[in-house]
Specification:
about 375 residues; alpha/beta; Aspartate Aminotransferase, domain 1; Aspartate Aminotransferase, domain 2; 2 domains; seven-stranded mixed β-sheet; four-stranded mixed β-sheet; about 20% strand
Amino acid sequence: MNISIYNSFPIQVKKAIGCMIESTEGVSYVDTFSGIGVMLLGHSYEPVLESIRNRIQDYMHLSNYFPVEDATSVENILLSATEMKQGGLFYTNSGTEATEAALRIVKKRETCSKKTIIHFSGSFHGRTLGSLSLLRDGPVKERFGSLLPNIQSLEWNDEEALDTYMNANGQEVLAIFVEPIQGSGGIRIISDSMAEKLKHYQKRYNILLVCDEIQSGLGRTGKWFAFQHWGLQPDIVLVGKGLGGGLPLGATIFSEELRYEFLPGDHGSTFAPNPVALAAAKTVLSEIPPSISHIQKLTPWVQETICTMLGSFIKDYRQKGFMIGIDPIQSTKEMVQIGREYHHVLLNVTYNGTIRLLPPLNTTKEDWSLMITPLQKTLQQCNL
């Protein structure tokens, strides 16, 4: 019997296309979060499927004893997109494994006097024990007892707290892990002034800056990566979720200074990079530039439409491109159920009650209307 830890929808899926999911009972639902940000180009995107079919006819898996045909192409695109062309890349199976690879590099740089790793409240960097050490404080973290030592949690977007800590302990700080836009934390966007503080302390104390772009990267915010909105210059970038076009694939991208830190035996993976996932990734990445232009063009319209249609039902709204957080006035436990059962819209709500919208990057105005209209009806019903 499966261990029941997910609050799954009671839907048996027959097929999924674009932003729509059809059940075996013939009911069509609007998917507002694309497999939690995984299906960057929507469900069953034909060019991605074709890439998968073509590769799988040749082979599915080879192991890391063989060079994989698309690995260099995908690596070059990502290094160029992160503006770290002289850097290096380590493939993983997922975002949390990308975090683990980053932690492993950071720990290699640890010294007796420089060993503190900072993260921020509301953060989420994965589900392994290492990444769990960087989880926001709370009961989930407490249930697992002692994790990595020398971890310091600071309040999100609290410049005074950062100043106070860094002025007293800056010389001891080895690395800072940051999501420029917190995904699981409720689409909490870093402030301009906080970003400037990070750049200042990164340079002042020679701190490794790790930008977690697992959810906010690959074009979702209207740039290749969210950190580029603020001119941050990370030493390590974490990628996952949508990279493999729906197949498991992640990557840890290192600056030139760090690219030679991993020695043979320091790290490895049985499955990464999987050649089928890489074939899908190559196609996904080729679609990012036009998607960025599309998102930049459509973002003002999306913002205006959401504020107009949902404004009377929400207390806060945050958006960067196609990454949106909505805080309803009435965030009830039944909201997800009401949306699904009565209005055929599938909603994803974060731990703090925020509705998280992560639609495909190629979502059209028509598709947006398909999402926003039933969401409006859902919120209206919750407010009765």
